[in-house]
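Minutes, project check-in
Item: structure for the 342-residue chain
Input as provided by the requester:
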Amino acid sequence: MTENFLNTLFSLSLTFGPTGCEKRVAERIEEELKGICRCTYDRMGNLICHLPGHGEKLMIAAGMDEMGFMITDIDDKGYIRVAPTGSADPACFLGKEFTVGNESTLTEGVGAGKVLHLVDRAGDSPTFDKLFIDVGAKTKEDAEKFAEKGDFAAYRGELFELPGDCVAGKALESRSGCAIVVEALKEAAKRDESERKDLYAVFTVKEKANMSGAVTAAYNLCPDNAILLGFTPSMNFDGDSANGRKRSVIPGEGVVLPLKDGSVLFYDSPFLTRAKEKAEELEIPFVLWDSPVSLSAGRAHLVKEGLPMIELSIPCYNPETPLAVVHKKDIDSALKLLTALM
C-alpha cells in the first residue's frame, strides 16, 4: 500500500457520505480522477468515470455510501431523533461522535440516550426509538439552526494504522473499494488504450439502503461484464465450529471471491473462472467463500438479457460501525487482481 493510496483512503474515509447524501464523496473521487477519466453523473447521482479502451466493455461498481441515519424529528428539548438508512447496531450509538447535516452544511453532535448508570431493567437496552443525537441545543428552535427533518447523520472518526498491517476507520467497508477502483483506474491510464478494456467505473449511491445505483447504471451502459467491490464480515475471533470448519474469512489471507451471496450466484460464471486463473497466474492471494452479505448492486445481473459479474470482497472486522478494520494485504490483493482484470 503506497503512501498516495493511503492518503486517498484516508480522505475518502473521512468524507461525510451516508446513504442518500453521497455528493461529497463523489466530488472527492472526481477530484482524484481529474484529467484521467471523463466523469459524468446520472439521474440517480452515480458518478460514472469512463476510461476508453479496446474490446470488452467492463463496468466496475463500488458503493460510495456509508452506514448512516436520517433525521426523523427534533423534539422540544433540541434532541435530534434519527432512523438508520441501512443496517445499524444501536449498541454502537451511545457516546459516539456524529456529523449531522446535508449536501451544503454540516455540524457536530454526540450520540445520546439513557446511560448505563440509569438502566435498571433489561427493557432499557438501546433501541433507536430511545436514542438521539445531541448537538448542544436547548430547544427545538436552536437545533433547527443546524439541522432539519430529512437531513442526515453519520459517525465521525479518524483513519489510523494498527500493528499487524491493519487499518482502522469509519466507512472502510465501502470506501476501501472506492479507493481501490480509483487507484486501478490510475494504473490503467498508464497503459496504451489498446492494452486495456473499455472501462466504466461506477461509484454508486444507496447501496446500503438496498437500492444500489449499479442497477440503473448497468441498464444504461449495457456492459459485457461487471466487477463489484464489496466486503465480507470476519468473525474469526469467535473461534472455529465444532467440525473444524472456519466460521468466516480471516483478514490477511487475500481478496475474497464470493461463490454466491443472497442475490447472485457467481460460481457458474466463466468470468469467475477467469478471475481465479488470473489470480493463480500472478500469485495473488485469494479465498473462495460464500458471502453472508447481499450487495444490492448484485441485482444488476438481471438487467436486460443478463450481466455476467463477479465480486472482489475485502474481509472486514466491525463493518458498518464507527470503526471498521481491514488488512493492507487484502486491499493490495484486490487492487492487483482488479488491475489485472482491467
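Outcome recorded: The chain has two domains: 3-66+170-341, 68-155.
No further action items on this chain.
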